[in-house]
Design a protein that fits this description.
Keywords: Membrane, Transmembrane, Transmembrane helix. By secondary structure, the protein is α/β, with parallel strands linked by helices. The protein is built from 14 helices and ten strands. It folds into two domains: about 35-125 and about 285-325, Periplasmic binding protein-like II (D-Maltodextrin-Binding Protein, domain 2, 3-Layer(aba) Sandwich); about 125-280 and about 345-370, D-Maltodextrin-Binding Protein, domain 2 (3-Layer(aba) Sandwich). The protein is globular.
Length: about 375
């Protein structure tokens, strides 16, 4: 055999061996037909951006699991699941607070004997309800730098800024909140406002107070077409700017994340005002049982475990959330909004933080809102 022919055979064998190795690697890392699991996540819109970022990373690390993200208002998540109104089969539900999952469980078990979820719900990220106002207007409405429900109510009653010490050319006073029949932040807003109006602790009897009923009438008349989600609300607040949107209640997370957008769009920033008391809300995830097999549930659990790891929790911090994993430091996370000198933002908030109201209170809030004139 000639030296050239022998060399050619060796090269062919080498190429064949490399081809087998590459094919093996391809099989190892490519999704195997028939074994890929699809996990459909239905989340509150406040988590939309961090989840989209983490979706790509998770799928790269887990090629046999495909994620589909859907976004609804937190109350919608509950209602649509209970009434089976989705045109897809949810695997994971992540409303803005865990109390919504308690409500879902209670409603589900009125007609079913089994549990709606595979495992105990898992905290994903935390935030709290805050107020925001364009800076010059916030100084007039809250001269001591503290959010005040009475001052907001008086401005709504006056209907214009001149009635509360603002400039005449500021025009009408425009407060914005989300729809309490569809969104968690709107429900939290009306619960805290009702508590302030009635005095004392929030209870079922609070909503039988005529002053609270009048408050619901005033807010519903004043807030034109309230958005269905907090993210939509803040996008509209920034786009409209002063004279069309002056003060709003939103989550701290989204207020921090969208602040730079407001400064760029309007040429001026808004300021954050911490409510006292406020309500801490924990985005909480649960894997549903209905029409979800064990294999898909296992894939879903892998995604939830991924979300609670430190590296992913830091992504939530970059989007303005406080971590569910207490080992994460807000100030040391790269690109943390708490390092950007956002007006009013605080790492250690001194206000009282309450848990979200129970499901009966949420029910009363929705009832009063629907009845309000």
């Amino acid at each position: 055999m000639s030296a050239k022919k022998h060399q050619s055979q060796q090269q062919n064998r080498t190429i064949t061996s490399l081809g087998i190795i590459l094919a093996s690697l391809g099989l190892a890392y490519a999704p195997i037909p028939g074994l890929q699991q699809t996990v459909i996540i239905v989340s509150g819109s406040e988590l939309q951006e961090p989840l989209k970022q983490l979706e790509t990373q998770f799928e790269q690390e887990n090629p046999n699991i495909k994620l589909e993200l859907k976004f609804q208002g937190s109350q919608e998540i509950v209602n649509k699941f209970i009434d089976n109104q989705n045109d897809f089969t949810p695997t994971i539900l992540i409303p803005a607070n865990g109390e919504k999952l308690t409500e879902l469980t209670n409603r589900y078990q009125t007609t079913n004997s089994d549990q709606p979820f595979y495992n105990q719900p898992l905290p994903i990220a935390k935030t709290m309800l805050v107020g925001i106002a364009w800076q010059e207007r916030g100084k007039i409405l809250f001269p001591d730098g503290r959010f005040n429900w009475n001052r907001v109510e008086k401005a709504m009653q006056a209907s214009n800024w001149s009635g509360v010490g603002g400039a005449k050319d500021w025009g009408s006073f425009d407060f914005v909140t989300t729809n309490p029949t569809r969104s968690n932040s709107g429900q939290l807003t009306m619960s805290l406002w009702s508590q302030s109006k009635a005095g004392g602790n929030l209870s079922f009897s609070t909503f039988n107070n005529t002053a609270v009923e009048s408050l619901f009438d005033l807010v519903k008349r004043s807030v034109y077409q309230p958005p269905r989600s907090t993210d939509i609300l803040l996008e509209e607040f920034i786009a409209k700017g002063p004279n069309d949107a002056d003060v709003a209640t939103v989550y701290e997370s989204i207020a921090l994340h969208r602040w730079s957008q407001a400064r760029k769009t309007q040429g001026k920033p808004y300021q954050i005002f911490y409510l006292n008391p406020t309500i801490e809300t924990v985005s909480t995830a649960a894997i549903v049982r209905r029409d979800v097999n064990q294999g898909t549930a296992n894939a879903a659990q892998k995604f939830l475990d991924f979300l609670t790891e430190k590296q992913q929790q830091e992504v939530f911090v970059q989007y303005g959330f406080r971590p569910a994993n207490n080992s994460v430091d807000l100030k040391t996370v790269p690109n943390s909004p708490w390092n950007q000198n956002i007006p009013g933002a605080e790492v250690d908030v001194s206000v009282k933080k309450s848990s979200p109201p129970d499901t009966k209170i949420f029910g009363e809030i929705q009832r009063l809102w629907e009845r309000a004139n």
